[in-house]
Design goal:
alpha+beta, Ribosomal Protein S5, domain 2, Butyryl-CoA Dehydrogenase, subunit A, domain 3
């Protein structure tokens, strides 16, 4: 299994340029891709998005693409003359309005957006496409490796906590097994303390104990819990993205423990159920990081 958290970087060179891609991912319920790249390569976004979604099924991936030109692709500078004149006119108007003298220098013009712009040799998007795809493939390999390492850590944690849940379920089963007998002793004690004459073998007493035993029976719930624990382990070992399935199983396991707590009518069982739900909540928190 894989975590949804990771980072990877890759680069590839084309003729006169190099593309570097960094990909960082965090947890999300669905797959989400955000791409930042130079405007001249904006046409590559859909291609890169499909490439990411082919390998990432869950999580938010933030991708940053950097374009570096080679030495032969020298930058050129363009001066927007009308904008420069408009700026100079504005400064003269300001001088007239305030009575102050303003003498702008080159730095004043350079600080104004759009007056002087730098452009490099244009990059053909079609030529850049395979280069960007190669860089992204490299980045995704590193990202997947990191997600896999964290996924192994999650799997180890899940298996340990599942073992704890199994042990608690066994304790609950043992504690609940003699609950009808203890209820019978309690009922007979209360009848005796009431001063009423009765036969311990009275059919009504037997029927009351039988009804109680039926109401507090948790065999169905513990059987389903064992099935859920087994299925949880199968998903961990399945080799496919299983985050959503594990999240669903956590909900079902929580439901069974809730039912046990309400049916058992026993303080010791209730305490064990609280322990189990606390451990399950730790699993649910970590499941939110699983792809």
């Amino acid at each position: 299994m894989h975590s949804m958290t990771g980072f990877g970087a890759g680069s590839a060179a084309g003729e006169g340029f190099r593309i570097t891609i960094e990909a960082a991912s965090v947890n999300r319920k669905q797959a989400e891709v955000v791409i930042q790249c130079p405007r001249e390569l904006a046409g590559l976004e859909e291609t890169l998005r499909k490439q990411i979604l082919a390998r990432i099924s869950r999580g938010r991936v933030q991708l940053s693409l950097t374009l570096e030109r080679g030495e032969g692709a020298a930058a050129t500078f363009h001066v927007d003359a009308p904008l420069a004149r408009a700026f100079a006119d504005a400064l003269r108007d300001l001088s007239t309005a305030t009575g102050e003298t303003f003498s702008p220098d080159a730095s004043d013009f350079l600080r104004q957006p759009g007056i002087v712009t730098a452009t490099g040799a244009s990059i053909d998007p079609d030529a850049a496409r395979p280069v960007a795809q190669a860089a992204l493939a490299d980045a995704l390999d590193h990202l997947a490796a990191m997600r896999a390492r964290e996924g192994d850590d999650l799997r180890t944690d899940f298996l340990a906590r599942l073992q704890t849940l199994r042990a608690l379920t066994e304790k609950i089963t043992l504690q609940a097994a003699d609950r009808p007998a203890r209820q019978r002793d309690l009922l007979l004690k209360r009848l005796a303390e009431s001063g009423l004459e009765f036969d311990p073998a009275d059919e009504r007493v037997t029927r009351e104990i039988a009804l109680f035993a039926d109401r507090c029976c948790i065999t169905e719930e513990t059987t389903r819990l064992d099935s859920h624990f087994t299925k949880f382990t199968e998903y961990l070992d399945g080799g496919e993205a299983c985050g959503r399935a594990l999240d669903f199983l956590c909900q079902e396991i929580h439901r069974e423990f809730n039912t046990i707590g309400s049916k058992a009518n026993d303080a010791a069982v209730a305490h064990l159920v609280v322990e189990a739900k606390t451990e399950l909540e730790k699993i649910r928190e970590q499941v939110q990081n699983a792809e």
